[in-house]
Design goal:
Helix content is 31%, strand content 8%. The chain is an alpha+beta fold. The strands form two sheets. The protein has a four-stranded mixed β-sheet with strand order 2-1-6-3, with helices on one face. The chain is extended.
Length: 293
C-alpha cells in the first residue's frame, strides 16, 4: 500500500508543534502584560465625576489636610467619602452660585448623596485596612501618589496583589515617621537630608508608632549613626528643633532622655521603623484572611 504522507510531513509536523508552542507562549505573555496594563488597572485614567473636584486646588492651593475630608482614615478600615455637609462648610459662603457646584447644592437641599465614582475601588473579596497602614507609617502618597498635584483624581498605582506583595516583602522602603503621613513631598532620609530618630517605651495598649520621635534638625547631645543593633539608651538635653516637613517657623521641643540615631538612607530609617513599629514580616502574614474576606 502506498504511503499517504510524504517523508516531508514529519518535518511539517515537528514545525507545527513548535509553532503551536511558540504561539501559546506568546499568547500567555501578551495576556500577562495586558492584565498589568492601564487598560485593565485603570491607572492614570480620570473618571467622570458629577463635580470636577480638584485636589490640587484644595490641598496645595488652600492647604486643606487630608483628614479634614477623609475623617476616618486614622480610625477605620475606610478612609471615607466626605458628606455634602463638609463641602457646604465653605461653599455655603463662597462660590454659592457657581454652576459647577449645582450638584452639591442639590444634594444639600434634597438630602441625596452625590454619586461619586470611586477611583480606588478594590474587589469585594479584598480587605484593606486604612487604619493599620496609616498608623504604621505608610504615607498617603505611597499608595495614592502626589494627590496634592492632581487637578482631577486618578489612580497612580495598580493596586493589584503583586503591588501589595512588593511592599509587604520590603516595607522599609515606604515607611516614614508618623508625623509625615500627610506630607506629600516626603522623600525619605538621604545624605543631603538626614533624619534623626529616637524610640522610647510606650504603655501597653498604646500604638507602638507613638514611641518614635523623628526630626530633620540635629538634636543636641550624643547622636549615633544608624545601627539597628545598638540599644536606644543614653541622655541628651532637651533641645528645640523643627518638625519634619514644617516651614521652619514653629520650633518643636524634642523629648528629653532619648538617644537619637542619625539616618542617611531610607533603607536604614525604614529598618529602624520596622523594628520599633512592630511591623509584621511576610512570614508572619500567613493567614489568607488578613487580606481576603
Amino acid at each position: 500500500m502506498a504511503q499517504i504522507f510524504d517523508r516531508s510531513s514529519n518535518a511539517l509536523a515537528r514545525m507545527s508543534l513548535i509553532l503551536t508552542g511558540l504561539i501559546t507562549i506568546a499568547l500567555g505573555l501578551t495576556l500577562d502584560e495586558l492584565q498589568r496594563s492601564p487598560w485593565v488597572t485603570r491607572q492614570g485614567q480620570r473618571a467622570d465625576q458629577p463635580v470636577p473636584f480638584s485636589h490640587k486646588h484644595h490641598v496645595e492651593g488652600l492647604g486643606l489636610q487630608c483628614q479634614y475630608c477623609h475623617t476616618t482614615v486614622e480610625k477605620s478600615s475606610y478612609a471615607g467619602i466626605p458628606p455634602t455637609k463638609t463641602c457646604m462648610n465653605c461653599h455655603a459662603q463662597i462660590w454659592t452660585n457657581a454652576q459647577l457646584l449645582e450638584p452639591v447644592r442639590h444634594s444639600w437641599a434634597t438630602g441625596e448623596s452625590i454619586a461619586w465614582t470611586r477611583v480606588h475601588d478594590l474587589p469585594d473579596y479584598v480587605f484593606f485596612n486604612h487604619e493599620i497602614h496609616v498608623n504604621k507609617g505608610i504615607g498617603c502618597s505611597s499608595c495614592h501618589g502626589r494627590v496634592d498635584q492632581m487637578p482631577i483624581m486618578y489612580m497612580q498605582n495598580s493596586l493589584q496583589m503583586e503591588w501589595c506583595l512588593n511592599c509587604h516583602r520590603n516595607p522599609a522602603k515606604n515607611l516614614r515617621p508618623t508625623s509625615e503621613i500627610y506630607n506629600m513631598a516626603w522623600q525619605g532620609a538621604s545624605e543631603l537630608r538626614p533624619v534623626w530618630c529616637a524610640a522610647e517605651d510606650v504603655p501597653a495598649g498604646s500604638p507602638t508608632a507613638g514611641g518614635v520621635t523623628c526630626t530633620e534638625t540635629a538634636p543636641g547631645g550624643e547622636v549615633q549613626m544608624a545601627a539597628l543593633s545598638s540599644p536606644l539608651t543614653g541622655l541628651h538635653t532637651q533641645t528645640a528643633a523643627t518638625a519634619i516637613g514644617s516651614e521652619n517657623t514653629m520650633p518643636m521641643t524634642l523629648p528629653a532622655g532619648l538617644h537619637y540615631t542619625k539616618f542617611t538612607s531610607q533603607d536604614a530609617l525604614g529598618q529602624f521603623l520596622v523594628q520599633h513599629y512592630n511591623v509584621r514580616n511576610p512570614r508572619e502574614l500567613t493567614s489568607c484572611e488578613v487580606c481576603h474576606r
